Amino acid sequence: MAPSLLIASLIAAAPPADSSAHRLPPVDECAADPSFAAFRDQLRVTIEQRDAAALLAVVADDIEVDFGGGAGRADFSRTWELDRPASSGVWDELAEALSLGCAGDGSGELYAPSMAAASMTEDPFEAAVVIRPGAELRREPDAASRSLATLDWDIVTVPEWDPDGAWQHVVMADGRSGFVRSEDLRSPIGYRAAFGRIDGSWRMTAFIAGD
What we know:
- This protein has 211 residues and is α+β, with helices and mostly antiparallel strands.
- The protein folds into 2 domains: 3-13 and 20-119 and 189-208, Nuclear Transport Factor 2, Chain: A, CATH 3.10.450; 127-186, SH3 Domains (SH3 type barrels).
- It contains 5 helices and 12 strands.
- The protein has helices spanning 6-10, 34-49, 52-57, 73-79, 90-99; strands at residues 59-64, 103-104, 110-112, 127-130, 135-138, 147-151, 155-157, 167-171, 177-181, 185-186, 192-198, 201-208.
- The strands form 4 sheets. A 5-stranded mixed β-sheet has the order 1-12-11-3-2. The chain has a 3-stranded antiparallel β-sheet with strand order 7-4-10, with no helix packed on it.
- A hairpin with a 5-residue loop joins strand 8 and strand 9 (177-181).
- The chain is globular.
């Protein structure tokens, strides 16, 4: 499945009837392939070292960069300012994506985080996953405010994202609402990486956000 078609899969399947339907913990289906596991281990070293040359070496020639038609190694390098690797934002974004599991779509493509390959009934533009187990749902956007719930990979709705806010107003599946720190939330259409085999070697075929 092409990365640009992932949104359709996010809303394709109905959830099971139990409470786990409203949680989306990461899974790692990709470690079962030793070649990919080794590739991912080396990619993590590349990220830690902020090695732009090593990253570009594993990027596909036609890597998908954005939904406006941006593609290719040169666009990827320009988008992430890899001529100044020390200050590039790609390292933090890619590290977080890799830290949140990996899953396949059945066609041989692999995706990180694993939520990028998951089926959800929630609108992906309003949904978010609480990615820090133990995060608190607060009555007000204040750490001193009363806790309404302790969250554990819950899928919540964010009626209106505040891109600059430290907190987001969210609604839980059971109707309770409150505030969660922005850093504890991740949109299913946030940055995700796709990986595929090209001429026998693993390559990153997309690193993209949005729809």
